[in-house]
């Protein structure tokens, strides 16, 4: 199962928000936009890590499926319920992304375990996630930035805890993350549209 234990909770670059807070989607959107390498001509890749074989670990592929349905123009989505990215294919998929995209900027999405009082919180921050760290798997770190959802408590019997995580919580967290990313995309699309219109007006004025 792909999780981490929320090791980066104390990183000052991280933002935490409960999935059902009123401003959660806006907070996620703003944090993503503040980190994107705009103007650097880099492909933006959303890497949704996890498997639907474990309820708690389904956060990533659920989020990827919701995003895929939105047909995002400026973001490329990898990792869905149909085509999950998990322990057996992670390295292969990362190699595929780097071979098919120009200087990609990766946003990794994963489930994690944490303190009981942190369950339901979404963390957004710079740097990669370390999939499998919470269940003692050695897997490559992924992402230039990350979004992780604390789906249950850590400390003991992690595999069992993940299997017994409530699907309702994971589903609602995935919807919040996907909606936040979609808001960031809509704002990016608006900015691109305004820039295109300004460039068109400039060309018309020079004729």
TrEMBL record:
- GO aspect biological process, one term: proteolysis
**A single GO molecular function term of this UniProt record:** peptidase activity
Q: Which Pfam families match?
A: DUF1256
* SUPFAM superfamilies found in the cross-reference section: HybD-like (SSF53163)
Keywords, A to Z? Hydrolase, Protease
Please name the InterPro entries in this protein's record: Pept_HybD-like_dom_sf (IPR023430), YyaC (IPR009665)
Bilayer-spanning residue ranges: none
Q: What name goes with this protein?
A: Spore protease YyaC
Report the source organism: Heyndrickxia ginsengihumi
